[in-house]
Write a structure and sequence with these properties.
With 326 residues, the chain is mainly alpha-helical. The chain has one domain: ABC transporter involved in vitamin B12 uptake, BtuC (Orthogonal Bundle), CATH 1.10.3470. The protein is built from 14 helices and no strands. The longest helix has 35 residues. The radius of gyration is 20 Å and the shape is globular.
């Protein structure tokens, strides 16, 4: 049944991606785009694929990775308000990208710096939680993640303070606002591969994440290694989130909104919730990417659009859910 759900989610994402590639100033028929994917399409389809392909790939990566990581962490910590940057990944990525931009690094190195910063922030949170050895491992990890995120945010604020206000500061600010247009084809595929590896790990864990969400004692009663499984789940979520932030910047609300919307369709279990969240997150990212370029030659930062649309949508979803349960 899980394979059928995954197949359905993939079909939904494929349809949305094809629609995004086919629409825009250069309209192309879907069948021509499909032919272009195998190298047999007309010139306009090849051009549309070359121009829009990397951007669509980045949008799919960011939306799916953030939503899948958010859903897994919400189950793991039994908290519906948990977001993918719980362990300071977004702040760490922003710090890494800002440091690379201040050093005058090439775009690929900026993305590498952001990825390394996100992974380093999560690793620091895990290390601190391991040293603390609190009675409640989940609460300990959350607290360590908050501290790590605060430290990374302080470092990022320092970077903004010392940045040149005419060159470096605008570049850092623009990166933090988010965009799906920064990566070329190779960089987009690399980020998609890393994010897919993280999401695949989460999907393979499946019901084990549900067991961890019930508590370590319940997980151990099922013969599971609670500590090792928690580490694996956090590692998968961190890989996916870091890869997404590295190529798109800080795009909030997707990892919080998509799992809540998917929960209304697929229920609470990880085997159904994760693929549904990934699909809805990817579709939402494609939608805001289309809106980002729909109001003229300029581009609205996708981070702003995600917040402007995601926050009211989350509030509406919360009110509807509360009324149904009441």
């Amino acid at each position: 049944m899980t394979l059928l759900r995954v197949a359905g989610a993939l079909a939904l994402v494929a349809i949305a991606a094809l629609a995004s590639l086919a629409t825009g100033p250069l309209g192309v028929a879907p069948d021509a785009l499909i032919a272009a994917l195998v190298g047999a399409g007309p010139p306009e389809a090849e051009l549309a694929l070359a121009l829009r392909g990397p951007r669509v790939t980045v949008a799919l990566t960011a939306g799916g990775a953030l939503a899948g990581a958010g859903a897994a962490l919400q189950i793991l910590f039994r908290n519906p308000l948990v977001a993918p940057d719980l362990l300071g990944v977004s702040s760490g990525a922003g710090l890494g990208a800002a440091a690379a931009l201040l050093a005058g690094a090439a775009p690929a190195l900026v993305q590498a710096g952001a990825f390394a910063g996100g992974c380093a922030a999560a690793a620091l949170a895990l290390a601190c939680a391991g040293l603390a050895r609190g009675s409640d491992p989940r609460l300990t990890l959350v607290l360590c993640g908050i501290v790590t995120g605060a430290l990374a945010a302080a470092g990022l604020a320092l970077m903004l303070l010392i940045a040149d206000p005419y060159t470096d500061l605008p570049a850092i600010t623009f990166w933090l606002l988010g965009s799906f247009s920064r990566a070329d084809g190779g960089e987009a595929l690399l980020a998609a591969g890393i994010a897919a590896a993280g999401l695949a790990l989460l999907l393979l864990l499946g019901f084990r994440i549900d067991a961890l969400g019930l508590g370590d004692d319940q997980a151990r009663s099922l013969g599971l290694d609670a500590r090792g499984l928690r580490l694996a789940a956090v590692a998968g979520a961190t890989l996916a989130t870091s890869a997404a932030v590295a190529v798109s910047g800080v795009v909030g609300w997707i990892g919080l909104l998509a799992p809540h919307a998917a929960r209304q369709i697929a229920g609470e279990r990880a085997g159904a919730l994760l693929p549904a969240s990934i699909a809805l997150g990817a579709v939402f990212a494609l939608a805001i990417d289309r809106l980002a370029t729909a109001f003229g030659p300029g581009e609205i930062p996708v981070g702003l659009l995600a917040a402007a649309i995601g926050a009211p949508a989350f509030l509406l979803l919360f009110v509807v859910t509360a009324r149904r349960s009441g």
